Amino acid sequence: MSQRGDFAENLQTPGEEAADRVGGIDGGKLDTVWRELRAGLRRDVGVRMFDQWLKPLALGEYCAFTGTIELCAATEFSANFVANQFGDRLRLAWRSAAVGVREVRVVRGSGKAFEFGAPSAGKAAGQAALPAPFDAPADPYAMEGDAGRESLPVFSQMREALNLRHGFQDFVVGDSNRLAFSAARAMGETTKPLFNPLYIHGATGQGKTHLLHAIADAYLTHFPDHAIIYMSAEKFMMEFVTAMRANDSMAFKARLRAARLLLIDDIQFIAGKGSTQEEFLHTINELAGNGARIVISADRAPHHLDAIDPRILSRLAGGLVADIQPPDLDLRRAILDAKCAAVRDAAIPEMVLDFLARSIRTNVRELEGAFNKLLAYAQLTGRAVDMEFAQVMLADSVRANARRITVDEIQKACAAHYHIEPAEMRSKRRARVVARPRQIAMYLAKKMTPRSLPEIGRIFGGRDHSTVIHAVRTIEHLRQTNPEIDSDIRALQRQLEM
Q1: Is 208 annotated as a binding residue?
Q2: pLDDT of 452-466, one tens digit each?
Q3: Where is this region: Domain IV, binds dsDNA (predicted)?
Q4: Is 209 annotated as a binding residue?
Q5: Which residue has the higher pLDDT, 182 or 63?
Q6: What is d(CA 102, CA 86) in angstroms, rounded to the nearest whole number?
Q7: Any idea of the CA torsion for 301, 307, 312, 317, to the nearest 10 degrees?
Q8: What secondary structure does DSSP assign to 154-189, as a single string?
Q9: Distance in angstroms (rounded) separating the CA atoms of residues 75 and 208
Q10: What are the phi and psi torsion angles at 231 (to 5°)?
């Protein structure tokens, strides 16, 4: 039998007895010594730190030539942490045991697994074992009974933390969110993305949190054994402060830096929090250096964040910054269509969906909330959903989202779109190059403002209300038969509603 360990290869002399002996030291004696040392270490460093870091260590190889013993940890991170924090203590303990050990190496790998105290039932003495599985209690990132465990949800715990409705398949894509969606998809794939971190910003209710949940769900599908942390910036701050007060910051750092995917929501909430920002900076630097993926969301672009450490801003801006703009009319309508398709027997007329899409313009969450409210009221009261019902039930939401579009704005937008002078909207000219844009402007004035027909007629050069009625009917017909006209009107509506 050759000497165990690559570093001791070819050191045995011919005829040297090797069975159940390691470099002249009985393997059983090393086992006994390690158990005794563990008992002392448990008293010295405390139960919490021992159970988290030293208890999972397995006895590895021993080289009699150098007097070096290996202690095996489950991961590279654990090995480095133990070596840095407990290396001197371990070395002193082994030297004091007077068994020929002069040096201790903490490495990642498999070794002989020992329970604290007597060997567990059913295990033969000295039986080799694999390192503890990732979600086992012996895992260095997980502490049994630790109140902070929920901050590192993995496997089923992470699945429970995710909103199952928030997958990529449920995210409606439009021009306003296409870049953020594509970047998020890349962060959840098996192939390492070309950018890191990913920074997603947009106003409240635009879908940032949805994308973070979708990234975690997709990543877990590809890498079910990897550690994932999802938390808000506020939770990050609260857990950090709690750990500092409990003099347990090392455990907090270890949990965070063990992640292979870190997702932090609403980073703007750590503005002005100096110590929290310092820890956040060190965390993302450590994770990025280890190849972990980082996704951050906020309500504004990095350079618009106030009271944030410039080093953090530089790190965030060094990845990919993707914004989510308020949804345009087409996207809002597509979101409502998707909601209808997902709800059985959602009998909502097209005109009501159009009303919702036009009335609630800036917030996707509020748009979905209005849809849910309308559907719930209809189901509870047994009343069919119609335009009158929708207007009454959603009056408050509509008023809150109301943006007063003026006829003057419509005239200027139509004139610019068709390259004519705004004054032509009020002129008496009847040439088609002027008359058609004027009719479209009248149509939009009727659809998008509270003005009456006579009022609209007067604004358009003192015309009669019947002229406005004719213009509205003409354009409604053309929208059904002329795709170009319909496209122009949609573009003008989006422009006016921004």
Answers
A1: yes
A2: 899 999 999 999 999
A3: 379-498
A4: yes
A5: 182
A6: 15
A7: 20
A8: -HHHHHHHS-TT-SGGGPPP-TTTHHHHHHHHHHTS
A9: 32
A10: -155, 160
